[in-house]
Amino acid sequence: MARYSVLRPRAAQTWGGPWDELRREMEAVLDRYGAPLPTAPRGVFPAVNLYESEDAYILTAELPGVEPDDIDVSIEGTTVTLRGERRIEFADEQASLHRRERQAGVFRRSFELPVAIEADKAEAVHRNGVLILRLPKTP
Q1: Which pLDDT tens digit goes with each residue over 7-16?
Q2: What is the reported pTM?
Q3: What whole-number distance in Å separates Cα of residue 5 and Cα of residue 14?
Q4: What is the DSSP letter of 30?
Q5: Cα–Cα dist 20/76, whole Å
Q6: CATH topology of domain 48-90+104-136
């Protein structure tokens, strides 16, 4: 049977003096205006960059942990759609989960481009968890 140990963070230490006073004032300001305390960003998946060159658009999508066979790219007129599924498998199904930050599931993102794309000339490369699409513009 596999054994897992969990490292727990130490209790937060207070700095005392003016640092505690500053922290209390900051919390009071955030509470007064209803602003939540900063948390880890939760963006959309996959994160993409879209570039335009003279003759094509280049779309890069970060897809760590997604197999190329689990990605579907469709092009209809001026719309490019990425669909897929990110699966997370556990080494031991009997193990207790203590923290889950990696999300799994189905994703779908669509991008409207200013001009139509020559879908039959589009190229895709999946390298190191990044999908790179070269989408030639129609002349």
Answers
A1: 444 444 455 6
A2: 0.65
A3: 27
A4: H
A5: 57
A6: Immunoglobulin-like (2.60.40)
